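Box 3.1 A note on notation
Throughout this textbook, protein chains are presented in two layers. The first layer is the amino acid sequence; the second is a token string describing backbone geometry. Keep the layers aligned when reading.
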Amino acid sequence: MLPFLNLNIESMKTIKAFFFICLIAMAGCSSNSNGPVKSYASVDDMVADIKQNVSEISVKDFNDLMNGEDPYVLLDVRLPKEHDKGFIPGSVSIPRGVLEFRIGSEKVWDEEGLYVPEKEELLILYCKKSNRSPLAALRLQQLGYKNVKVISGGWHGWHEAYPEISEDNIEEGGMISAAAEEEDSGGC
């Protein structure tokens, strides 16, 4: 005869309660505390969804901003080799893949001769054609930056509309982006 079969009703209730509590504890430990992870059928669907939560600025409105007096920080989130082929004047190159690690780095901004952007400052982002910059903008919003915008059409849209206000074909050894020096680091 098995000893656990001789348990009285009170003992069985205690064991049942113990297992129930353990089950709840295990379920709580394995759940995602941030809620369910949203999944997408394609990267295009993901970018389209994120763009709904990110503010855009047209190339014309950005040109007006450039010619005005309102302060802003312009970030090129493309790869350094893309930036070095051509960029919007005044932009700081911080690739999307390391943006979260470098946006608050005094070293990066000191090398550019600038200060670390405040969370309330206007940050304008661009990439090649406005697919990576919304992803970067979302991350900056998640880091507490409150005024982040993406240039509609990205570098292509800007260069097409304002080719005369673009720095093109920087030769190797010329311009060095803030990201190039630490390309292999950044917490990734």
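Residues 9-30 form the longest helix (22 residues). Residues 43-168 form a domain with the Oxidized Rhodanese; domain 1 fold (CATH 3.40.250.10).
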